[in-house]
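Q: Predict the assembly, please.
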Amino acid sequence: MKPAVLTGEHFINGDVACAEGAIAAGCRFFGGYPITPATEVAEHISERLPDVGGTFIQMEDEIAAMTSILGAAWTGIKTMTATSGPGFSLMMETVGLAVVTETPCVVVNVQRAGPSTGLPTQGAQADMMQVRWGSHGDYEIIAIAPSSPQEMFDLTIIAFNLSEKYRTPVFIMSDEIVGHMSEKVVIPDARKIKTVSRPKPTGRKDKFRLYKPGPDGVAPMPSIGEGYNVHVTGLTHDEKGYPVMSVDTQKEMIARLLGKIRNNLDDIIMTQEYMLEDADIVIVSYGVSARTAYTAVEEARNMGIKAGLLRLITVWPFPEQKIRELAKRVKGFVTVEINMGQICREVQRCAGIPTYLAGHAGGAIIPPDDVLNILKERF
Amino acid sequence: MTENPQNVHPLEDLVRMDRIPHIWCPGCGTGSVFASCLTAMKQTGIPYNQFAMVSGIGCSGRGAGYINIDSFHTTHGRAIPFATGIKMASPDLNVIVFSGDGDLFAIGGNHFIHAARRNMDITVICVNNLTYGMTGGQVAATTPHLAKSSTTTVGNPETPFSLPFLAYASGATYIARWTMLHARDLADSIEEALVHKGFSFIEVLSPCPVNFGRRNKEKPLDTLKKYYENTIVRNGANPAELDIDYKKGVILGKFADIDKPTHDEKYKKMYWPDEK
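A: Predicted assembly structure:
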């Protein structure tokens, strides 16, 4: 039996690194369903979970996989599932249940080109709007985009920490290229890995209110069997967790669900900047496309074009404030993403200055030349 | 007000009294099934915090909202995979799925057959009222052939599932059928199912006078009379002969009680062979 943290240098692909990150973060249940290009996450974690006393089950579909991780999460443990486009679509209703019941969990989407069956073995980043808006109703989620197998490990741990801290589903929006790419992954010493667990209730059980928030807007979460006799429902509910079919209760509940994310943006949003200080064109990118964007910035600088990179590690909540600030001092933006302009539109909305897309319909990475051509022709 | 112990309902400690009155219609059978379920839980003597109840969506899906234990009202059809997650993560818990025929056998049918196949150690209680009550009486996977519903106004052209037969074919290891009128038999059966190791399924026939009876010229008491007069208790009956036909007589009783390793037992044995 191997330990939870496999300290050392490894040459592994992104999917495997993600599974190792989950184990290191404390994930102890995975409900899955096979789908290219995410299957390796399930395969690897199915082997690893028993090492650390955790359990794995391959469910009958992605709806069941997603639902099973919520049930397991209420026993007090950290849980995860992984999928790709078609499975992600099936999970959407249950994502809403996770949001409204404030159930911490991590969902990995190793994106492939869609719609429908699309290009199962080829990468894309075209589920970026689906992850934000795919379930019905108003809500906020957290979505993180790793650019390398190393980040599949590191950011999976951060995803668990955020999901526990804010009691919300957190999405790892990877893609086939990062998922299937093998690179060096350094797993640190177990003592160097910071993990966070959900806030737990204290005080009298008979006075306990399931959704009474703490100072940061997040309510402590009991587990099944602790004697709190919780009632957890997808219906609109009051602080006690009881269904109340009223406009006021709906308003209060949604305000708090949105607020716990929107009032903690500084804690949640992670970005990385490269040569932005003197840039007059900002390239915005995330996930595997940030690697293209990085090369494009270097080549642009060699050509005398003052381009800089803003890499979104957290894509949702969207770093609106950062875009607005940059928009005041630069000529324009270019987004690099493997889709037809999903985050591009979001940048346009915030920037109000010329913003262009270096993107395509999916199946391959964006060549740096596509970015350079836009820089040369548009600016 | 001081409580006179004689005035306290024997099941009150298991009910969220602050949520009463419930939403169930006059003449509905779900409350009786719910009461039998609570009675059964008491009869087992198992501490209440070692139970969890999971429901889907629908009239009986509201059961989880009235029971005073850890309880979960999930999405439509997904009570079983939610319960599966609980059981996988915490095998010592007794997980009860309390839901309806539409929830468990149409939208959730796939989960039912797979949980039965795995012999997942949970107890599934299905309140079968032959229709979608909550949404106003549409045709269900259990609606009898020719019966009228709001989406089959001339009559149901389809054939219903025989739920115990489906459970048997899928691998359930405890299978019973009662009506809500057989409250004591039902409670005893649920108690057996709760204690049984493995996937237990109990179908409970239950009237929906408002949305099924009304359209099919069946008054509330007529349904109860059928439950009383046109049923036959036959333990160990052939699961293939359990279709619901009141002219022939509907067979009730226990149809399977099989000793077979559960999913969590097998997982433990195979993946942690050194553990006791």
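Residues 225 and 266 of chain B are 45 Å apart (CA to CA). The mean pLDDT of chain B is 96.
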